[in-house]
């Protein structure tokens, strides 16, 4: 995962425009809010990225913890949300120090594909310990091995047409074909899981899980799972 952390901590071009970036994060924040069930809930966004719309989520819960491994991104998060008293920014290696059962909702969106299977297993172990007995884990944007990159392109273009940045999206796709992201994706690859494989992984980590009706974010060809502590 370290190579991907370095990439997202750099000046990358994963978003085709500022509007694309804003729409992306706003959509994710809206989807996360749909999983917040109480105004005093403690929510953990695991590997949150820039989380530009995190204030929306914070307004719907008691405490929002933004956990981010990339130090540059983490610094920007701290500055951006310095005046939001219920938003806390943490490094991933700070999470094991949190009390057992102290989190009501954990969201890991667009994270699992960048982690080796054993890294994901360790992360799920930490999350399992942190979740309250009635808490939930939302594991989003899981890549299906049967679905190719063409579906990702189609989903991006559909979102771009809907929100008015189609021309930027077309130019952005051309740039991405020659970018460090494409090279890194080719070199390292992204982890993919079938529905059965992810359900088995979650069960092994101590969760009772099911596939959500829709994915978190804009891409309907990827999968999300909702898991609760088993037993």
From TrEMBL:
GO biological process: methylation
Domain of life: Bacteria
GO molecular function: S-adenosylmethionine-dependent methyltransferase activity
Alphabetized InterPro entries for the sequence: Methyltransf_11, SAM-dependent_MTases_sf
Gene3D superfamilies linked: Vaccinia Virus protein VP39
SUPFAM superfamilies: S-adenosyl-L-methionine-dependent methyltransferases (SSF53335)
Keywords associated with the record: Methyltransferase, Transferase
Name this polypeptide is given: Methyltransferase domain-containing protein
Organism: Rhodopseudomonas palustris
């Amino acid at each position: 995962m370290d190579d991907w952390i370095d990439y997202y901590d750099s000046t990358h071009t994963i978003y085709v425009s500022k509007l694309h970036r804003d729409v992306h994060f706003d959509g994710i924040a809206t989807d996360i809010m749909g999983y917040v069930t109480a105004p005093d809930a403690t929510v953990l966004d695991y590997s949150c990225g820039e989380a530009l719309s995190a204030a929306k989520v914070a307004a719907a819960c008691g405490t929002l913890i933004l956990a981010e491994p990339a130090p540059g991104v983490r610094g920007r998060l701290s500055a951006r949300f310095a005046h939001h008293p219920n938003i806390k920014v943490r490094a991933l290696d700070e999470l094991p120090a949190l009390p057992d059962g102290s989190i009501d909702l954990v969201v890991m969106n667009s994270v699992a594909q960048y982690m080796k299977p054993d890294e994901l297993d360790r992360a799920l172990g930490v999350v399992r310990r942190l979740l309250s007995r009635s808490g939930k884990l939302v594991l989003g944007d899981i890549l299906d091995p049967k679905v190719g990159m063409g579906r990702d392109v189609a989903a991006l273009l559909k979102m771009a047409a809907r929100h008015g940045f189609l021309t930027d999206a077309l130019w952005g796709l051309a740039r991405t074909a020659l970018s460090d992201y494409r090279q890194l994706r080719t070199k390292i690859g992204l982890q993919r899981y079938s529905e059965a494989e992810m359900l088995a992984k979650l069960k092994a980590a101590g969760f009772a899980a099911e596939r959500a009706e829709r994915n978190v974010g804009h891409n309907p060809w990827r999968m999300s799972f909702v898991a609760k502590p088993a037993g």
